[in-house]
Design brief:
Nitrilase/N-carbamoyl-D-aminoacid amidohydrolase, six-stranded mixed β-sheet, 15 strands, globular
């Protein structure tokens, strides 16, 4: 199986429409790949919080339309990274009117979501994934966006993808849930800051080893609202070996890998079978 991770650079002087067209051209160039992956929030920039409400779109909006044409022309499965999604009916799931914020604190849903799009080689929207763990603690994404609540897998002919986004990488229980749902290849688009790059590569390898799965982690290059991006998109095999790693500039990272290695690894080293679930927590002692 061949995967191409497009580590696109986000330039604040480039318009969103221009970047969509440029990303679509890069996707078209990947004809011959089976799967193409774009980073998190590449149309607007993961840290460009002030632009989220203005650039929000529905899952069938302009980013989808541009990516749909590109996926069908290239004949590839496309994880189109993520967009700032506005709920299609303009209201949050609890019926509040939209204002671009998660009202009442970071634990309540709002009208905006950090939403990934997965398209088939025919250009059809197959699945969406709303990011579960929002970054920023009590500011930024954590207050501007609602939280997703569903684990999402996508069955490709060669492998089953498990979807996560950026900050999700720090929460191993999410990935365990994806593995339990059948995931063999974990796809993680991100807008990861350069100052925490070592965490990025460490966590990508850890998620691969502990879940005995491939990890395809695609980050951005460039600068988002003054925040330098890490780059270093990475592909890790089920043993934690790095198959390919990008640098810090815009580039396309292409790697061939064998999805059958997941089953072989889990059979030869069946650590997942030794999990013990439902253990009781003893009362605290003084």
């Amino acid at each position: 199986m061949r995967a191409s991770l497009i580590q696109i650079a986000v330039d604040p002087d480039e318009s969103v429409d221009s970047r969509r067209r440029r990303a679509a051209a890069l996707v078209r160039e990947q004809r011959g790949a089976d799967l193409v992956v774009l980073p998190e929030l590449w149309p607007v920039g993961a840290f460009a919080y002030e632009s989220f409400a203005d650039e929000a779109e529905t899952p069938d909006g302009p980013t989808f339309r541009e990516m749909s044409k590109a996926a069908s022309e290239a004949g590839v499965w496309l994880h189109a990274g993520s967009i700032v999604e506005r709920a299609p009916d303009g209201r949050a799931p609890d019926g509040r009117a939209p204002d671009g914020r998660a009202q009442g604190g970071p634990d309540q849903d709002g009208t905006l979501y950090n939403t990934s799009l997965v398209l088939s080689p025919a250009g059809e929207l197959v699945r969406t994934y709303r990011k579960i763990h929002r970054f920023g603690f009590d500011k930024g994404e954590a207050t501007l966006m609602g939280a997703g609540g569903e684990l999402v897998t996508v069955r490709l002919p060669e492998t089953t993808l498990g979807l996560a986004t950026c900050y999700d990488l720090r929460f191993p229980e999410l990935f365990r849930g994806l593995v339990d749902a059948g995931a063999e290849t974990l796809v993680v688009p991100a807008g990861w800051p350069a100052r925490r790059r070592e965490h990025w590569t460490l966590l990508a390898r850890a998620r691969a080893v502990e879940n005995q799965a491939y990890v395809l982690a695609c980050s951005t290059a460039g600068t988002h609202a003054g925040v330098e991006q890490s780059g270093h998109s990475i592909v890790v095999d089920p043993w934690g070996e790095v198959l390919a790693e990008a640098g810090t500039d815009e580039e396309v990272l292409t790697v061939d890998f064998d999805p059958g290695t997941v089953a072989t690894t889990r059979e030869r080293f069946p650590a997942l079978k030794d999990r013990r679930l439902g253990l009781e927590t003893p009362p605290a002692t003084r």
